[in-house]
Amino acid sequence: MKYIDQQIDVLLYDRIQETINNSKLKPKEKIPKYSSILDDLFKALTVAAKKHISCLNARSIYNFREYEIPENIVNNTNNLNKLQIK
Fold first, then answer.
1. What's the CA gap between 35 and 30, in Å, rounded?
2. pTM (two decimals)
3. pLDDT at 2
4. Hey, is 40 helix, strand or coil?
Protein backbone atom coordinates (compact mmCIF):
# COMPACT_ATOMS: atom_id res chain seq x y z
CA MET A 1 0.00 0.00 0.00
CA LYS A 2 1.22 3.48 -0.80
CA TYR A 3 2.00 5.70 2.16
CA ILE A 4 1.40 9.42 2.23
CA ASP A 5 3.84 12.07 3.32
CA GLN A 6 3.80 12.73 7.07
CA GLN A 7 3.06 16.43 6.53
CA ILE A 8 -0.08 15.55 4.57
CA ASP A 9 -0.98 12.99 7.21
CA VAL A 10 -0.76 15.56 10.02
CA LEU A 11 -2.68 18.14 8.00
CA LEU A 12 -5.52 15.71 7.26
CA TYR A 13 -5.64 14.57 10.90
CA ASP A 14 -5.79 18.20 12.09
CA ARG A 15 -8.62 18.93 9.65
CA ILE A 16 -10.57 15.93 10.95
CA GLN A 17 -10.07 17.04 14.56
CA GLU A 18 -11.06 20.60 13.71
CA THR A 19 -14.28 19.40 12.08
CA ILE A 20 -15.13 17.06 14.94
CA ASN A 21 -14.49 19.69 17.59
CA ASN A 22 -16.32 22.53 15.83
CA SER A 23 -19.58 22.58 17.78
CA LYS A 24 -20.95 25.40 15.60
CA LEU A 25 -21.22 23.07 12.62
CA LYS A 26 -24.36 21.03 12.18
CA PRO A 27 -24.00 17.43 10.95
CA LYS A 28 -25.12 18.47 7.44
CA GLU A 29 -22.35 21.06 7.39
CA LYS A 30 -19.74 18.53 8.54
CA ILE A 31 -20.44 16.03 5.75
CA PRO A 32 -18.88 18.17 2.95
CA LYS A 33 -15.85 18.84 5.15
CA TYR A 34 -15.31 15.12 5.78
CA SER A 35 -15.82 14.45 2.09
CA SER A 36 -13.19 17.04 1.21
CA ILE A 37 -10.74 15.47 3.65
CA LEU A 38 -11.36 12.04 2.12
CA ASP A 39 -10.91 13.44 -1.35
CA ASP A 40 -7.55 14.95 -0.36
CA LEU A 41 -6.49 11.64 1.20
CA PHE A 42 -7.40 9.67 -1.93
CA LYS A 43 -5.68 12.29 -4.11
CA ALA A 44 -2.49 11.75 -2.12
CA LEU A 45 -2.82 7.99 -2.51
CA THR A 46 -3.44 8.14 -6.26
CA VAL A 47 -0.89 10.79 -7.18
CA ALA A 48 1.33 8.15 -8.79
CA ALA A 49 -1.51 6.42 -10.66
CA LYS A 50 -0.99 6.07 -14.38
CA LYS A 51 -4.55 7.28 -14.99
CA HIS A 52 -6.20 10.64 -14.42
CA ILE A 53 -8.77 10.18 -11.67
CA SER A 54 -11.07 13.16 -11.39
CA CYS A 55 -13.43 12.80 -8.43
CA LEU A 56 -13.76 11.32 -4.96
CA ASN A 57 -15.93 8.44 -6.12
CA ALA A 58 -13.48 7.42 -8.83
CA ARG A 59 -10.49 7.80 -6.49
CA SER A 60 -12.12 5.73 -3.77
CA ILE A 61 -13.05 2.96 -6.22
CA TYR A 62 -9.50 2.94 -7.60
CA ASN A 63 -8.00 2.65 -4.10
CA PHE A 64 -10.49 0.01 -3.00
CA ARG A 65 -9.62 -2.13 -6.02
CA GLU A 66 -5.88 -1.47 -5.87
CA TYR A 67 -5.40 -2.16 -2.15
CA GLU A 68 -6.97 -4.50 0.36
CA ILE A 69 -9.10 -1.97 2.22
CA PRO A 70 -11.13 -3.30 5.18
CA GLU A 71 -14.82 -3.67 4.38
CA ASN A 72 -15.95 -1.25 7.11
CA ILE A 73 -13.83 1.55 5.61
CA VAL A 74 -15.25 0.86 2.16
CA ASN A 75 -18.81 0.92 3.50
CA ASN A 76 -18.28 4.08 5.57
CA THR A 77 -16.70 5.89 2.62
CA ASN A 78 -19.53 4.86 0.31
CA ASN A 79 -22.11 5.98 2.87
CA LEU A 80 -20.40 9.35 3.24
CA ASN A 81 -20.40 9.75 -0.56
CA LYS A 82 -24.14 9.01 -0.63
CA LEU A 83 -24.84 11.50 2.16
CA GLN A 84 -22.89 14.22 0.43
CA ILE A 85 -24.80 13.74 -2.82
CA LYS A 86 -28.18 14.22 -1.08
1. 9
2. 0.78
3. 65
4. helix
